[in-house]
Amino acid sequence: MLSLDLTGKTALIGGSTQGIGLASAQAMASLGAKCVLISRNEEKLKAAVQTLDTKAGQQHSYLIADYANTDMVREVVTAFVKDNRVHILVNNSGGPAGGPVSKAKPEEFLQAFQQHLICNHIITLLVAEGMKQGGYGRIINIISTSVKIPLKDLGVSNTIRGAVASWAKTMANELGQFGITVNNVLPGATSTERLATILANKSAKTGKSLEEVEKEMMEEVPARRFGKPEEIAAMVSFLASPAAAYVNGTSIPVDGGRTGSI
User: Fold this and answer.
1) Is residue 13 classed exposed, middle or buried when 0-12, 13-18 and 19+ CB atoms within 10 A define those classes?
2) Which strands make up the sheet holding 251-254, listed edge to edge?
3) CB burial of residue 66 (10 Å; 0-12, 13-18, 19+)
4) Spelled out in words, what is the top-level CATH class assigned to the domain 10-190+229-254?
5) pLDDT (average), residues 123-143
6) Which of 6, 141, 188, 235 could form a disulfide with 33 if both were Cys (CB 3.0 to 4.6 A apart)?
7) Residues 50-105: pLDDT tens digits?
8) Rounded to a whole number, what is the largest CA-CA distance in the chain?
9) pTM strictly above 0.85
10) Domain extents for the chain?
């Protein structure tokens, strides 16, 4: 029997005041999960919590942490897991700035590595012990289709996303025996603030109108449109559920068919 019920489960979701992170929290809350949002802006966190479904009697909450400060992330999550067990972790953070890899500065790689891989690793290690004790764990990393095929003018992102994907596969191999799965969701072009920034930058660089740039990018997608955050969140929710217990160590594109590999 297909079970998507998340009642009684606690989900910790990064970057969850907007876009895919918020949509994922909303989707899991609608399935009964208690959601704990983590981001750096308290006002946005307060507003985001108010959008979450509480029909299962959940009391949602939030943690304040800036992923640019790994010590802060460690401290905040350590304090939380002392008295709380996390069943579902969604590692999600805003992507690095665009630009060709040949022009990237070393410090850009270091900053992105800390924000993405190191923060993912810190939080995963902190929540994994509770997952082991409960025999249930779902670790879901929001990455990018660039782990399949590198994307033009996203040099730093391509590099770091690939590192996160390899880290996740290795972690899946080690944690699978404890009933914990580790999977990656790879969003394609999705209607978020990051996509709006990418489109605006491309328009400024090429001299083409925003409408022309949007049309060109949509024509690369067999679905001929951009994705919605809710569509990415649907995959996240499935991977978080009991139904996905035997899905482990995968990188799943949710991109309307845009990625050119099988």
Assistant:
1) buried
2) 61-64, 34-39, 10-14, 88-91, 137-142, 180-187, 251-254
3) middle
4) alpha beta
5) 98
6) 6
7) 999 999 999 999 999 999 999 999 999 999 999 999 999 999 998 888 899 999 99
8) 56
9) yes
10) 10-190+229-254, 192-226
